[in-house]
Amino acid sequence: xxxxxxxxxxxxxxxxxxxxxxxxxxxxxxxxxxxxxxxxxxxxxxxxxxxxxxxxxxxxxxxxxxxxxxxxxxxxxxxxxxxxxxxxxxxxxxxxxxxxxxxxxxxxxxxxxxxxxxxxxxxxxxxxxxxxxxxxxxxxxxxxxxx
Length: 147
Hints:
Structural class: alpha+beta
Largest sheet: 9 strands, antiparallel
Shape: elongated
Distance between the termini: 29 Å
Number of strands: 9
Strand content: 25-35%
Strand order of the largest sheet: 2-1-9-8-7-6-5-4-3
Helix content: 25-40%
Radius of gyration: 16 Å
């Protein structure tokens, strides 16, 4: 029971709003950072699990959650999380976590991405920039998760 209470006390501090950023050049930066809703870092003794949802602007709606496993504990130094979906190198500070993500074999539905971007962009120019970011991500699925 004590372990369960410890886990429950930990979840609220890391289940909060986050951003996912695709590394791009300056002209695309205004449309390359996305709010994501479901990041969680859960610790189970010596093990940890990082779970997050990629933005629909990059993978379309209803894309499965990304789940990576690593070692528990570790404020102040780099931690590695990995699974068949990819890997993350994360630095956990007192109240934040920053992860450099390298994903693989995402099976992105490009039509769903295009539809989402066109439907949710304010102008055709914005849509064109967002589509360019999505195309780059599809070709090289890397990013930075911060929360």
